[in-house]
Amino acid sequence: MLWDLDTDAFTFSVSSEDKAFTKRGVLSVVNSLYDPLGLTAPITIKGKALLRELSSEINDWDEPLSFEREVEWIKWKESLKLLEDVHVPRCIIQSSLSLTKKKELCIFSDASTFAIGAVAYIRVVNEEGNYQVVLVGKSKLAPKPAHTIPRLELCAAVLAVELYEYIKDEIDLEIDTVRFFTDSKIVLGYINNTTRRFYVYVSNRVNRIRQSTRPEQWCYVATKQNPADLASRSIAAHELQDSMWFTGPEFLSRQELLEVNNYDLVQPEADSEVRPVVTTMLTKTSNVDLGAHRFERFSNWKGLLNAVGKLLQIAKSFKKIPGKPGKGTWKCSHTSCGVDEFSQARITVLRSIQQDAYKEELDCIKRGRALLKGSSLRRLNPQVDKHGLLRVGGRLSDADLTQEEKHPVIVPPGHVSTIIIRHYHESVAHQGRHITEGAIRAAGFWVVGGKRRTCNVIKVCVTCKKLRGKEEYQLMADLPADRVTCEPPFTSVGVDVFGPWQVLARRTRGASANNKRWAVIFSCMYTRAVHLEVIESLSASSFINALRRFFAIRGPARVLRSDRGTNFIAETRELRKHLLEKGCVWLFNPPHSSHMGGSWERMIGIARKILNAMLLQSKHTRLTHEILCTFLAEVMAIMNARPLVPVSCDPDQPTVLTPAMLLTQKWTLPVLLLGTSIPYTT
Ligand SMILES: [Zn+2]
Ligand SMILES: [Zn+2]
């Protein structure tokens, strides 16, 4: 850099000494150009770039470099000679300082993937017009690995800010305004942003920019009019003198600069530098009331009173710490609430829900005014007691009764009224609406809409459903195959034992006879005929005897069914095996499923009824084994003579179908001597 005293301008000279084309030589030439103001930045950046490329390729300082590089290198070195023709006037402001109206600093910045650059001009406005002079330029290689263009543009903006601070410290002139220009709307958006947050890289640089500049100072300039573009791209030396690098862009010479407008973030949702929006909320409550909505967490009245009573205990134990407003100590005792605390809690809860529901009414009464026309409490003539509770007025004020009786507390509709109703409904052992309502009133509550609400509570009460529910009927399954298969009588047989009956035992010398008798019922599954046999004990041997008699009279059966009675299961294994050889299976119902033996249990019921009637008629006769046998035979006859289908009203078919008809092929009933005076015993 030289100072030409004749023209009072800066010029440059490049040493013509030839250096070897090695890394050392290149470094020497690049650094031989002394240019503290960065006036030749668009040229020198090219040399710096070349040096960086060489450094990454070759490590040795004195190794000769490749031929292709040498061509490029010589071309650049030759072009440096043209810098000797460059003349930059040293004097910034040629006219008299007193005549200048305004001195403005304009700093441009730009970036490319190759380098970032910034250049500052001073713009002077005086009476004759205005002009601008280049002040300082600066360029830096873009960092490797490559950044995104918006990040590089942001770095260039930071470079411009640094340049501004440098000028501000060094220049002796008073600058009126400072403006920054960039051709990146994204960067302008970052700088002007007040709504979103950025990740660290952008955030740090935006903070740096906003430390020393204001967003209003930043303007947009088209890339073609941006002189910093030259520094970031590098140009040939012969183009430099005629470019806008020294003269500044043409629009600066105009009288007034464009108005600055606001720049918003460019597509903040798609920008990876912008942090996603996080919404945070602040809840502030100023209500000192307990808030009736909290009571909805309780499902019973006692629990609610207990909890509020506990809170009151804690509130009483609260002691302020002097000097610390809003802070204090409290303790929670483990003793349950006393009577006082319960009644205090009751008042607190009721007052709280009344405050919520009847705010206007309470206001009116406190001010001594009549209730509003539309108020639902108008009919009740309400009054406020010493605890601030709304009570029903009525005409019994002078009566010799307790206050609860004279003036019940008004309970507004809502959750608390529901749990009060439920509490008193349970306390009267789930009685109906009438009794529940009575209990509520006796406890001193006037529940608004009480009848309907009580009905609703009872309607959903599970215990009441259990107590008063309609009886449900089981949907019956299909009949078993035995019942619907056409077979001879007593082919499929249900077996069971019933009884016992007390009989008059004959006294035998030396041993006392068993005086209980049972009956075995054999019920045909198809014809519904029955056969009864008397047995003397519940033992297996008695049963086997009965079975043998049955088989002897009615013929062999194919299927026997029974429950798992002990006399059927125990000691009959041999018998079952024997029966199986004769082609008869014995099936047992599953345990505890008496419903599966319904067809013969029903027959037992009929047999008992008939027998009971017989025993009643013959009450003067003492029951002996013989008479019981006779009775059971007659019971069997009556049962087998019962109609199987409804008795017909058709005159063409006057007969009834009975099991006896199927068994005996006879139409008439057997001759029974029931109710006659013919004695059974002598
Ligand atoms: Zn109930
Ligand atoms: Zn009768």
Automatic annotation (TrEMBL):
Domain Integrase catalytic: 484-667
GO biological process, one term: DNA integration
Protein name per its UniProtKB record: Integrase catalytic domain-containing protein
InterPro entries, per the entry: Integrase_cat-core, Retrotrans_Pao, RNaseH-like_sf, RNaseH_sf
Molecular-function annotations in GO: nucleic acid binding
